[in-house]
Design a protein that fits this description.
about 130 residues, 2 domains, 4 helices, about 60% helix, about 0% strand
Length: about 130
């Protein structure tokens, strides 16, 4: 089990870090198109901007509707993000290796896609 967790993290963490830096590249390119500086204030050439964005997102004040269940409202995005990461378990790493070898991978994908809607429903639950 521990080996699967290490393999999963070794696959997911580089993808998440790469996505953060692709966002930085996109912002730089769009800034060039719009003739403005773009993100260049945090770190050398703005390379620490994705980390600053993540810290800002984590520390940002969350507005929770007064009639919403507080814990379920906070749990909903966590559930959505967790389900989206579970898709990566069955994607092949090489020609012969996946993290989890399922014979019914298409049903696994369908089941996960149906779980994503529950986060929206949970967020809308009222006390």
């Amino acid at each position: 089990m521990f080996l699967y967790i290490i393999k999963y993290l070794s696959l997911i963490l580089p993808i998440l870090i790469a996505l953060a830096f692709f966002t930085l590249v996109e912002r730089k390119v769009l800034a060039t198109f719009q003739l403005r500086i773009g993100p260049s204030f945090v770190g050398l050439l703005g390379l620490l901007q994705p980390i600053a964005d993540a810290v800002k997102l984590i520390l940002k004040e969350t507005i929770i509707p007064s009639l919403a269940n507080r814990w379920l409202f906070i749990l909903a995005p966590i559930l959505t993000f967790s389900v989206s990461l579970l898709y990566w378990i069955i994607i092949p790493i090489s020609n012969t290796e996946t993290l989890l070898d399922l014979n019914l991978s298409i049903f696994y994908l369908l089941a996960l896609s149906s779980l994503s809607i529950y986060a929206i429903i949970i967020a809308r639950l009222v006390k």
